[in-house]
Amino acid sequence: MTEQEIKKQKIKNTLYLCIMLAVSGAVGLLAHSLDFNRQQAMSCSIFIMIIMATLLFWQFRLAIAFVGIGVLMGTNVLTLPTFIRECKIDVILFLVGMMVTVGVLKELGLFTWIIQSVITIPHITGKTFVIIIAVLGAFMACAVDEVTSIVFIATLIFQVCDTLKIKPTPFVIIGVLATNIGSTGTMLGNPVGILIGQKANPPLSFVDFITWSFPIMLVTLTVSIILLMMIYRKDIKLMTERLNDRRQLGLGLGPLVKVPYKSGLAVLVGMITFIALHHHIEIKLGLAPNTVLIVAPLVIAGLLMLWRHERARHYIEADVEWWTLLFFMMLFAVAGTLEETHVSSKIAGYFQQAFGDKPALLTPVIIGVAAIGSAFVDNIVFVAAFMPIVNDLGHTPLLWALLQGACLGGNITMIGSTANIVALGMLEKRYKAHIYFFEWLKVGAVIGITSCIIAWGGIALLSPYMPTKQQREEMRQTLEKKTLELHPSLIGDSNN
Amino acid sequence: MAGNNKVHPVQFASLFKPAYVVCHTQKTDRDSVLRELLTQLAYQAGIGNVDEAFKEVQHRENEIPTIVGPGIAMPHARLDSIDKIIVGVATVKDGFVYAPERSNNTVKLIILTLAPKIAPGLYLQAISSVAKICQAPATADTVAKLDTPEKIWSFFQTNGATLPEFLRACDIMEPVTVKLQEHDTMERAIDLFIRHLVSEVPVIDKDGELIGVVSTHELLRVCLPDYVLWMDDLTPIINFEPFAQILRKESQTWLAEIMTSDYATVDENAPAVQVAKEISRQQTDIAYVMRGKKLIGIVSLATFLSKVLRE
């Protein structure tokens, strides 16, 4: 770095620091003027400061989150017991289990087999390839998570584009957008799904996601694929031409190896089955809601580590994204202070004052706010802050609105979701190619806005059939009663 | 302030004096001529211990005789005992066999360069400065005929050779001996890798422009792409299946399959140190020296280090 560049960087950092302090100070003053007490104003101000810091100093987000926790504790806004409770260790452990399992699946050859299955499809054309990467990206996000999914989809795209000598950027954008859409399909698609499922009051199950969110995802994905094929028609046409040329020479898209995929496939199917049936298993075993959901990936990871004990330490050290998980923990705790100091219920009150108590009006508002917020701030940050407000508003459709808005809004900008950042990093590393903010925005905005409108329509259509918060609570109590009937020995525990 | 940094050109003739010239020596073998010349330099220029200097020069000449042009040898050494470059010149009227193990190497003019040990590149600069004079076929004969040290010194002064301000990439490059044409197949590339034991080969189009590089690493990446490397255990691949697929199609597959546009290039006039920078930045072993889009030479990392740290 030259002296001039260092000087520029220093000026930029100072400017960012001033912006961060000014915005957080302004939020504190605004909160104070809105009749928030000292603790509430402080928690708002510090929360915004951490959000701004992660936005402006992304590389230092974990360091800033650590310092932020210290500031909150030092000012008595966050207490140690609240910190420990709000860290959401259950969500973190679930993600650890998933990451270990994905690491093992990768080494077992499952993802190699999937990629090979795609590159050996006979008579593949550009259009077929786009449909495959979009659908595969979306469904893999549903089965594992969006970040894992995009790593494999991007590798597949690189392999095909390298072989055909065509620009990978359009296909990477298609893959990322489809993966983000797919991440709304199940609880496993995105950490946001787990957070909403776990934090919803009463909690949501995997089956709830499949019932209410998956169908919307399918419609959104179909429309988005059609739109993307129109936007990138020239690149798709070029791919078809190159594929034809190659086929005439009798050449494939990459070397093939025999992959012993069956054990990996069995592990994946077993894990998804366990997770899908968690609700029923919990009733049968008389367990608290979502216990099996959280524990299943951990137990499977444990068994896999016993099986491949020589690699066990590697899975924990290399496959688990500790940096991200620690950041999530700090962030959940910081967001927890908003709930603890009743800031969220106050904001929920303002929402009700502004938009009434009708889900029909609140749904597009929540989708819109979540989408715009997630386009610029990491969506988990946004959901962590918004979840208590949605809980306080107490309408089931709003939970789905928050999920759809947070995940689909991530498509609008190139920094909107972790999958976007991971894919762009891979593209930059491999091709030294950059995608510019507006290059992404002009496609991302079309897909993001269209999919949010579809999601709004889908939720509006399904909401008459969705159980209300009260009905969900009653169902939970009925299930608890059934559980106690099945397991009378738990009565004592229940009374305690 | 830029004017302060301007380096004035150094005349090659300023590196020696008539007193450093041994004219028409009677010695007729390499070592005797070198020893005579070094002794002369010890008296006239103060180069320190003659035996040590001789051992240094002899050691290098035994490794690779430095015959740089017809009838001209340019031996050299780097010494601790001197702090500036010193040149000595010797002429042998009828010439002598400089390196008996090599044919056709009668030498009449010896230009001995002694450089301070901690000044890498000075010798190369000296070579570069007299390169044009040395390339003329008659130079050795012309100088060998001159009968006094003064006349020899004036020859170099009159011909006006100057040391370049800095060593350029083209001063340390080597000719391109192994290359591929754009219409070649992967089969030919693999043959070249194996026959010449090289790790990469440049690909040239019909106008001599560099259009890409094929490398063994790229070939390996084609055979074992990322998705194969994800697997922990490759025991199911017992017969090199991915390589077998390449072999099956190698004569039909164009170089495009393993050609990369990710390689280090440097302009011929760029400072030689830029070669190191490009090699480092691209994490490769070879930099391609370009004149516009045309490939005119290559510098390997090994050559670069040898020239800068040893020559």
Report on the architecture of this protein.
The complex is a heterodimer of chains A (496) and B (311). By secondary structure, chain A is mainly α. Helices cover 79% and strands 0% of the residues of chain A. Chain A contains 26 helices and no strands. In chain A, helix 2 (38-56) packs antiparallel against helix 18, helix 20 runs parallel beside helix 22 (396-409) and helix 21 runs antiparallel to helix 22 (396-409). Chain A is globular. In chain A, 49% of the residues are buried. By secondary structure, chain B is α/β, with parallel strands linked by helices. In chain B, strand 14 and strand 15 form a beta hairpin. In chain B, helix 1 packs antiparallel against helix 2 (50-63). Chain B starts with 9 loop residues before the first strand and ends with a helix. Chain A binds chain B through residues 106-109, 111-112, 115-116, 155-156, 158-159, 163, 165, 249-252, 254-260, 311, 432, and chain B through 222-228, 230-234, 236-237, 241-243, 245-246, 249, 252-253, 256-257, 262.
Write the layout of secondary structure elements.
The complex is a heterodimer of chains A (496) and B (311).
Chain A: H1 3-33, H2 38-56, H3 61-74, H4 80-86, H5 89-108, H6 110-119, H7 126-143, H8 146-164, H9 169-182, H10 191-199, H11 206-212, H12 214-231, H13 233-248, H14 262-276, H15 278-285, H16 291-307, H17 312-319, H18 322-340, H19 343-355, H20 359-376, H21 379-393, H22 396-409, H23 418-431, H24 437-462, H25 469-486, H26 491-495
Helix pairs in contact in A: 1-2, 2-3, 2-18, 3-18, 4-18, 5-14, 5-16, 5-18, 6-8, 7-8, 7-9, 8-9, 8-23, 9-12, 9-23, 10-21, 12-24, 14-16, 15-16, 18-21, 19-21, 20-21, 20-22, 20-24, 21-22, 22-24
Chain B: E1 10-11, E2 21-22, H1 30-45, H2 50-63, E3 67-69, E4 72-73, E5 76-79, E6 86-97, E7 106-116, H3 122-135, H4 139-145, H5 149-158, E8 162-163, H6 169-172, E9 180-181, H7 186-196, E10 200-204, E11 210-215, H8 216-223, H9 226-229, H10 241-249, E12 259-260, E13 264-267, H11 273-282, E14 286-291, E15 294-300, H12 301-309
Helix pairs in contact in B: 1-2
